[in-house]
Amino acid sequence: MIGADYDLLNSIYTERLQDLRRRAEKVGIAKSGSVEVLRARLICEEVLKELDLSWEGIQSFSHKEMGQILKVFGIKSSGSHKERRQRLWLHLNYDSRRMTIENLAEMGREELHHLCLNLELDLTGNRTVLMGRVAGVLTSQINGWGRIKRSLRRNGIQNPTFEENVPDGGPIIGDSLLPSFEVSDESFQQPPSKATLEDASDSIVIGLDKQSDNVQGDLLTIQARVEELDRMVGTILRGHGGHWGDSEKDLLLRLAARRGWPIKEKFVQHRITIVGTNIAEMKGANMTERGYGEGISEKSESVISRIRSKITSGRKKLD
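-> structure tokens emitted (319 positions)
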């Protein structure tokens, strides 16, 4: 679970521009920019310093982890996996007052091409076409990034669950910001949204050009069956009471093999389980009770350890 030091994060949410500039100067980072740009910069440096928040790092986080990271930044956390990645990248790299649809008209093709690349958009077309694609993302993400939620800016975090001595495996701040809900088997029968399928399709072929020819061919074949992959995940969730863990991942691979999917390569198997896990998360699967023990979950446990260490050192500095 992504977490953060309550006192530290709360102060960053509520401090004024001059206070944030003094804090930035003290920790040795740029103090220029708007109050919201400084907030994002300080959260990266002081709260989530141990996380890789580069473009490549953002691609590696699971759907659930992305939602929790967005909550730490105090911005909108809902949406598909791809929408969450786009929102976080925009929040970390641009000032929302300057990155507007109107200002896109002043950008050259190379700059727009760079934006499309980092927003995971199609790179073909002339300058006008590229500008239209970026404008579409900015429109869909409007008011979702660039500024923390008004309630956090005014009042900070309310009713935190963070305690001074958090036992291993216990809740840490961030859990209190997560919605608690139960899902029924019926929810796994719902047809996937277009965004979910597009997200899964894109995730299957991330970094495709870095793989061997046979792996590329296998992944492209599986990408063409993304709707079938979604149905398989839903079937497994219904049959296993909404749980998703190691046994469910193994079952997914067995089902894929039985249907003749090209999954002999270890990399292809790993990619299927990652994408399948992201789909399960978006369907509201229970990822904890029956084990979530390899792949993405190992990284999640590593994140927990690093954050807990950061909490301890951060509080000592404040003391």
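The mean pLDDT is 79.
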